[in-house]
Amino acid sequence: MDGKIIDGKEISRQIKEEVKQEVEQLKAEGCTPGLAVILVGNDPASASYVGSKERTVQALGMHSEVIRMDEATSEAKLLGEIRRLNDDPAIHGILVQLPLPDQIDEQRIISEIAPEKDVDGFHPVNAGKLMAGLPGFVPCTPLGIMVMLERSGVVLEGKHAVVVGRSNIVGKPMSMLLLQKNATVTVCHSRTADLPSITKQADILVAAVGREGMIGGEHVKEGAVVIDVGINRGTDGKLHGDVDFDAVLPIASKITPVPGGVGPMTIAMLMANTLESARNACRQNG
Length: 286
Ligand SMILES: Nc1nc(=O)c2c([nH]1)NC[C@@H]1CN(c3ccc(C(=O)N[C@@H](CCC(=O)O)C(=O)O)cc3)C=[N+]21
Known about the structure:
single chain, 286 residues, alpha/beta, Rossmann fold, five-stranded parallel β-sheet, three-stranded parallel β-sheet, 42% helix
């Protein structure tokens, strides 16, 4: 209803429809894109995300393999599973659901995934390619945000983009992608002094801090575009963003909701990356 609210669910639906068409075309050439998702342990939130990824992969006509491993699984066993998938020609994308249990070194695991199957874009080779401006897989959440901005007609060139959060998964790749589009980028984090004075300069504000309602009206400039990456499960059992939506809505020119904003875009881009990986693999060998 309100044209201010960027509908991530609708944009993700469009992307998935486009991917579905292209999957059909690729299948007609004898190549079925395949995604393997590894879930270690029984965290209910992780299990629910993995379930939703699996359903989406199947709905788009791709091959899905979900590997569920025990909470006590050793690092060696998980590495073995990744090596098997690296060598499996039916699998074009490998996603190891994070976080992993404490006995497993996440960086060690991510580094074992073949970079050309790393549809999460977390492998150091893909991170390096992004920084160097070379083609490679880009992490799904920041990539999805770029697509949302583009499809909502947001111009980035010459604008001040402020990213709050410096993770390898969102903040750092987000800042690289915004730079590529000629935004002036500032990265803030938990030790930033006087955060509101900086976020208030933002034409585009990306909140990826992981603290419910952290970004309030006092953080936002009139007319800013506000992207909320937060997915915090509140005590009410509902999902809440990092942005105090009701406080920021009247100030922003555009804003993404939670749920129905960045989250669905993340899954859509995972599908797009898996399609791209299959295309690369099949057209190279076929
Ligand atoms: N290797 C790896 N890759 C990931 O991409 C990855 C991960 N590990 N670990 C966990 C996070 C989280 N994540 C989400 C994706 C979609 C929604 C999503 O679609 N959310 C819906 C609501 C879902 C609900 O209601 O629970 C929404 O925001 O509208 C949320 C969260 C991917 N992650």
